[in-house]
TrEMBL record, chains A, B:
The keyword Mitochondrion applies. Homodimer. This is NAD kinase 2, mitochondrial. It is found in: Mitochondrion. Keywords: ATP-binding, Kinase, Mitochondrion, NAD, NADP, Nucleotide-binding, Transferase. It catalyses: NAD(+) + ATP = ADP + NADP(+) + H(+). GO terms for cellular component: mitochondrion. Pfam families: NAD_kinase (PF01513). One of its GO terms (biological process) is NADP+ biosynthetic process. It comes from Caenorhabditis remanei (Caenorhabditis vulgaris). Transmembrane segments: none annotated.
Length: 491, 491
């Protein structure tokens, strides 16, 4: 059948439609046994007081990193996006650059020259030379990126976090993040359409695993070549599902709080700096808090209750999608969390725990992974008990390699395809008793509803943005096609 | 050999000395397979907004509760204390009574009569009748206790939490707590000598497991008889080890904060009430905060560093011993914790996790247990992987009973003797990578040192008392004989 092609987008749409009729649903990642090229694990010996380690929460032991790298790429072949003929030809590109640690320290210690700064840092156990070196590496990547965009005739604007506004994002056809995975998270947080690609450039391959970045740890000398590939269409689209959160509260929704300085009266300029939303402290800025769009308020009749929601309850869609996970639980780490949870359309169940995470495939390598993974110690103990209980001395609990392989396999099963249109929930330290009967603390669902019974609870998006979520509030979390994040990957 | 006996204490001392020469060190609890009488698990259907559930964090599934009940009693036979001839003949007894939920609500809603209160509670999903009923039960126990003490010629004083001062404790020869395990924790927190017994009376057998209380869930009609047994010496001493914490900080130690209302400007009288330190909110009171003795400050030369500690570092022994556990980690539940840990005299290791708990045998059924326990889902998954990996189809992963038994055995191994003179540490969600190499996240030590590398971290005792513990602070935790808590148990 001949069709008139007016533009690439039309071709994409056509191919997409054709594929949709025949697509297989996403499948769980297979266990991969063949040895794979291992990503280089670089020793980040940074011993500074502020562990600037944006993506440590996503790092895996070598054996798992390799498995993940293979798994995610293999699965993505099944993604719908792979049926589109890739093309990356934006006219206007926005670059979100992180602030380097060196830049931050210079800002904090205004008026100090570099020698003085070096002394101050040394007293704290930080290494000035390392900071400067990383700063230079970051800017080297950044300069190459800007130069290649210019050579390709693409207009670009460079912003840092405070200039990363919705307006700036709307202006652009595509967004690049220059930093680590944390910067990528920040960049994607303001992109709500699946048609605007977000591409991560890992400018700190030593410090960041770059799971969400192009080629993960692309050496700087290869960046120009990689960008050329991109402009020539030699790549594939990778679609990362995200979580949409709709909250109903007694008194509307509080404003978002950036998880940084929880201690009052602390001078913002001295707030601890890091690139990672899920690390201690981000530099706070009043304008930044305000730059988060206020939640979209809607009044709704609650279908599930079959009653009219009293007029004072407001339902809002949070303006930020979660790319990794949503955490719901008490703000205070040593306080027990109470809530009710309902999967899909099932009845709500009461739970008591240390909180719950709801994650995407992207997030399944992150906090979710660290909560659920088993250690070799644990696997060994269990194998020994099974051997004794079942009278099976052949079970190799004393064989370190066997234990390690079994441990790896178990942990690998925790990770799933970023493209999978389901949410994985994970209950931390679940407490079971007569009032709170045992349930599976891990599982999948298409939609998850949570009713807070909390005292000082919060709902935290990607470890960085927090909304108050106390007794009386309810949240619905789901994955929607239109919320998908479009990124790129090389095969 | 004849010795002149002047008093019972001398006999005790003599027996103690004799035993000390021959004592065996505490051993880990054995796995108990024989069926044991199961404690009654009562359904606490309380659906109130404020889950008044002091000890839910200590509840276990039936199979484990039974095992625990047997295990702890069996082990205690080996305790040194069992060689003393028991005698309980105090002249003066202090009774610490909890505030019942009913009393609290009446206080909060001053000026409302009971009908109005009933309406208010109903709107919140709470049951007025149940509250009143529990209130009466509590006072029935309390009256019996006071009456029996009087009949035995023992002077007693009754206080609630705000009257529970060091002065009051010092006045008494023994302390009774009337409430649940939470009240027992509170009572024992001010008893620093191992010669002053603390006895828990569980006045809420429906709501509290009473692990630390006499007979755990003693029916009210049996209380008088139990007390008579006590006065006649028909019991055994049970010694519970506790954790002493010594902290060295850059600027001394902050005042203790009771973990209750973290939100500023909240009227204390409306603060959420509970008996459990590790539940949301306790009713706060300025006088109460101040009634915690300020930490004992001492200047010390740090032996481990072999240098003179700079004059601005202060070393203080915290005035509260931990009976369950110490938690060290970031205050904010979604923030990653950084710290260094050293077991005994070993080198300090850097760690990154969601925090660490250090517990006693008493605490091993509590938070520590819930962090480390495996669920049947997890055990089944792992058994399946072992079966496939080792080609052992006989492994009964599909057999629910086998899985349940194996799961129980694994979890049971987490629990140890309250009398054991060691600390168990447990790292939550440990993050392993090149900077933070894998270590066993669970283990024992005689002494544990932690150096904070935290941003807004705290050190939390028994889930109720929190001390700021940021970068620059160090804590040493150990078990000392003189800190033992003396309690009673019936065989």
């Amino acid at each position: 059948m001949r069709i008139r092609i007016r533009n690439v987008e039309q071709v994409n749409q056509h191919l997409r439609n054709a594929y949709l009729c025949s697509t297989q649903p996403s499948v769980a990642p297979k266990t991969v046994l063949a040895p794979q090229p291992r990503p280089v694990i670089v020793d980040n010996g940074e011993s500074s007081r502020y562990w600037v380690d944006p993506t440590n929460h996503m790092r895996l032991p070598k054996s798992l990193a390799a498995a993940l790298y293979q798994t995610q790429n293999t699965q993505s072949k099944r993604s719908i996006g792979n049926m589109e003929k890739p093309s990356f030809q934006p006219k206007k590109v926005l670059i979100l650059s992180k602030l380097t640690r060196y830049e931050f320290e210079k800002k904090v210690h205004k008026g100090c020259d570099d020698d003085q700064l070096a002394t101050i840092l040394k007293k704290r156990g930080s290494d000035y030379n390392r900071l400067l070196s990383k700063h230079k590496i970051h800017h080297s990547y950044l300069n190459t990126l800007q130069r290649e965009l210019e050579n390709a005739g693409i207009e670009s604007r460079l912003v840092r976090r405070f200039g990363y506004t919705q307006e700036a994002v709307d202006w652009a056809d595509a967004v690049f993040s220059a930093g680590g995975d944390g910067t990528f998270l920040m960049a994607s947080s303001k992109v709500r359409t699946k048609h605007k690609p977000v591409i991560g450039i890992n400018t700190d391959p030593q410090g960041s695993e770059g799971y969400m970045c192009l080629m993960r740890k692309l050496p700087e000398e290869n960046l120009a070549g990689a960008l050329k590939k991109l402009f020539h269409g030699n790549f594939e689209w990778l679609y990362r599902q995200r979580i949409r959160i709709t909250v109903t509260g007694d008194d509307g929704i509080s404003d978002a709080i950036e998880l940084h300085d929880q201690q009052l009266n602390r001078d913002p300029s001295t707030a601890r700096w890091t690139d990672n939303p899920r690390s201690p402290a981000r530099e706070i800025d009043v304008e930044e808090c305000m730059s988060l769009s206020p939640p979209v308020k809607k009044r709704m009749i609650s279908e599930s209750d079959k009653v009219v929601v009293p007029i004072e309850k407001e339902t809002v869609e949070l303006p930020v999608l979660a790319l990794n996970e949503v955490f719901v639980g008490e703000s205070l780490s040593s306080r027990v969390s109470y809530y009710e949870i309902g999967l899909n359309e099932e009845q709500m169940l009461k739970q008591k725990s240390s909180g719950i995470t709801i994650c995407t495939g992207t997030g399944s390598t992150s906090w979710h992974f660290n909560i659920n993974k088993l250690t070799e110690q644990c696997v060994q103990d269990l194998m020994k008990i099974v051997a004794e209980h079942c009278n099976l001395p052949q079970i190799p609990h004393a064989d370190k390699n066997a234990v390690s392989e079994i441990c790896t396999k178990f942990n690998q099963q925790l990770i799933f395809d970023p493209d999978r249109r389901q949410l994985a929930f994970s209950v931390r330290d679940p407490i079971f008793n007569a009032t709170f009967p045992p349930t599976d603390p891990r599982g999948f669902a298409d939609k998850i509803r949570i009713k807070s019974r909390g005292y000082d609870a919060h709902l935290v998006i990607d470890g960085g943005i927090s909304y108050r979520f106390n007794d009386g509030s309810e949240a619905v979390m789901e994955v929607r096609d239109e919320d998908t994040l479009r990124t790129v990957v090389f095969r």
